[in-house]
Design goal:
By secondary structure, this protein is of the alpha+beta class. It contains two helices and seven strands. 30% of the residues lie in helices and 34% in strands. Strand 3 and strand 4 form a beta hairpin.
């Protein structure tokens, strides 16, 4: 009887997991899995399959985050590493310094 329950719950977990992973919620989403919302000044705003927004076109120069529409956000009086950590936290930035994606508003 225990074996029957174990098989049932294992099968239920397996089918539940495959249904949950059918939707690609990665950021940035794989090509074709995102909806483009808007394009502007070097960046593009997207929405992934789960409805989460993200924007491309950000990059870091020293202690300054360069925004896709030409704006800048500089963190003064800190090292480059400290400024990067602060900016990544504030904007939800992911990726390499020269090709960042914003995930937080």
């Amino acid at each position: 009887m225990i074996v029957v329950y174990a098989i049932f719950f294992a099968a239920a977990g397996f089918f539940g997991a495959s249904a949950a992973t059918a939707q690609n919620c990665s950021i940035p989403a794989a090509e074709g899995d995102a909806t483009e919302i808007a394009q502007h000044g070097g960046g593009t705003l997207y929405k992934n399959a789960c409805g989460e927004r993200y924007e491309t076109g950000y990059y870091l120069e020293g202690n300054t985050l360069i925004l896709p529409r030409g704006g800048r956000h500089t963190v003064e009086a800190s090292s480059q590493d400290e400024a990067e950590a602060i900016l990544r936290q504030a904007y939800g930035l992911i990726g390499e310094r020269g090709d960042l994606v914003r995930t937080k508003w």
